[in-house]
Each structure stands twice: as structure tokens, then as C-alpha cells.
Automatic annotation (TrEMBL):
<dbReference type="InterPro" id="IPR006442">
    <property type="entry name" value="Antitoxin_Phd/YefM"/>
</dbReference>
<protein>
    <recommendedName>
        <fullName>Antitoxin</fullName>
    </recommendedName>
</protein>
<dbReference type="Pfam" id="PF02604">
    <property type="entry name" value="PhdYeFM_antitox"/>
</dbReference>
<dbReference type="InterPro" id="IPR036165">
    <property type="entry name" value="YefM-like_sf"/>
</dbReference>
<comment type="similarity">
    <text>Belongs to the phD/YefM antitoxin family.</text>
</comment>
<comment type="function">
    <text>Antitoxin component of a type II toxin-antitoxin (TA) system.</text>
</comment>
Length: 98
């Protein structure tokens, strides 16, 4: 591929990065590529601004970060039955008019 073709692809938003104005003009294509080829980055003033991902990818990623697996691991731990002492610390309280 010659240099001018690569530059044209970059300017037209082909690949994984799209300039904002190109993404707006070709939003249907950006969505289609996100669904078929993975995340599409949109740049603003030459810097990454947002990433467009398919709903399936987003949902799959959200499921990973619920904390459920950590809770299950702690519950299955041999130390699960240990009672921890929670000290109560009291400090000075000032009167506040409401």
C-alpha cells in the first residue's frame, strides 16, 4: 500500500480510529465495524476521545467487574468464619446549628 492510500484510509476513518467529523458522517459504518471488527476509537483534536463498542462486548465486560467472583472467593476461603474485631473510635463532636 502506498503512503497516500494509508493517509487516505486514516483520514476517512478506516481501521480502528475515526476523526470525530468522519465518525459523525459515517456513524452507521462505525457501528457496523464495532459489531463486526471490535472497538472503534473516535478522536477529537487528534487525541482519543471515546471508544465505540458493540453492546455484546460492553455487557460481557461489565459482567466481569461486578465483584461477585471476589465475594464468592472470600466466602469459600478457609478464613470465612473468622470474626474480625471492628474497633469503634469516637472523636470530638461539635455543635452545629441547623
Amino acid at each position: 500500500m502506498i503512503k497516500s492510500e494509508r493517509r487516505e484510509q486514516k483520514m476517512m476513518g478506516l481501521g480502528e480510529r475515526w476523526r470525530l467529523q468522519d465518525a459523525k458522517a459515517r456513524f452507521s459504518e462505525v457501528v457496523k465495524r464495532a459489531r463486526e471488527h471490535g472497538p472503534q476509537r473516535v478522536t477529537l483534536h487528534g487525541k482519543d476521545a471515546v471508544v465505540i463498542v458493540s453492546a455484546e462486548s460492553y455487557d460481557r465486560e461489565r459482567e466481569r467487574h461486578t465483584g461477585r467472583r471476589l465475594v464468592e472467593a472470600l466466602a469459600a476461603s478457609p478464613l470465612a468464619g473468622i470474626m474480625l474485631e471492628r474497633p469503634f473510635i469516637s472523636g470530638p463532636v461539635r455543635d452545629v446549628e441547623v
